[in-house]
């Protein structure tokens, strides 16, 4: 165990950075970063040392471990979700100061990259030199690749802890859920991914790229015991009907219209029966904030009308958490500087408030397991 802990710590120190520093800037949002780091470490100077010191307590920490991935390179409509980790953290500290979780920091994001498999060796070497001051370093350089490495080592070292990922665009959920599912398969756990979203994210690829915000779900199906264990809630923006997605991919969907027409209690009952029938042990919740109706959340890359209300989403989460442990989760697609409502900062604050309330619930339940 000590060897695994030491290896993970070395990887974290190389591939991550203090919370809030995941967006590579000099002055942009500097005051907000300092406010967040003051809340976490009670100081604003030499944050790198305070962060490194905090990592020593990870073995004894809370089971809920937060990881920020400030990348929107896998998005494709309105960008800006790279600011989600900083702003959501700050809102959580303001809105729910009593929350208990361990913040492991941010992935060091090169904003021009997505996954190492799309890069040639020369680019990887040059980026390693920039990131690690060593072009022969063993570490990856792209946010999806770094996230998967860190998550794989994390679950190998701490199988009883869970990562709460903050994005970032929804491509980030690919390495988070892949690492989680591989770990749970090794533990012989049957798990379901509960995916809240306005979109199916079931493209095979988009413009030739197979790992992006619109396709990540397709590529995690092989790590589930059954594709039906991907349960999607809130779908409403799709060029094809529900029957197409369920028949082609074998997933389970509950469109937003069903929640509105049949009632949230009916949908909850249907989901719980499926989980029971399929002998599910644990749940991972992947939450794209655009699952919520755009009248509540418009600071996101693809706001959609006719979605879930925050109350409906919370009712579903509470009902699931009463019956099943939530052992992993993420919150994606919060773009604080993006606004389609015309209400500016008010829109951003409302979106962040909704996302923080849902995130606080998920973190609380993860910490209890």
Describe the structure using short key phrases:
369 residues; alpha/beta; Arginase, Chain A; 9-stranded mixed beta sheet; Ureohydrolase_dom_sf; Arginase family protein; metal-binding
Uncertain spans: none
SSE-based structural type: alpha/beta
* N-to-C SSE string, H for helix and E for strand: HEHHEHEHHEHEEHEHHEHEH
Strand tally is 9
CATH T-level topology: Arginase, Chain A
What is the count of structural domains?
1
First CA to last CA: what distance? 21 Å
Report the CATH superfamily.
Ureohydrolase domain
Biggest pleated sheet: 9 strands, mixed
Portion in helices: 40-55%
Q: Quick check: average pLDDT?
A: 95
Structural Rg? 19 Å
CATH architecture: 3-Layer(aba) Sandwich
Indicate the overall shape. Answer: globular
How many alpha or pi helices?
12
CATH class category name: Alpha Beta
Major β-sheet strand ordering: 1-3-2-4-9-8-5-6-7
Write the layout of secondary structure elements.
Layout: H1 2-15, E1 16-17, H2 30-41, H3 47-55, E2 64-69, H4 84-95, E3 102-107, H5 121-132, H6 143-157, E4 162-167, H7 173-186, E5 191-196, E6 230-235, H8 242-249, E7 252-255, H9 256-262, H10 264-277, E8 282-288, H11 310-323, E9 326-332, H12 345-368
Parallel strand pairs: 2-3, 2-4, 4-9, 5-6, 5-8, 6-7, 8-9
Antiparallel strand pairs: 1-3
Helix pairs in contact: 1-6, 2-4, 4-12, 6-7, 9-10, 10-11, 11-12
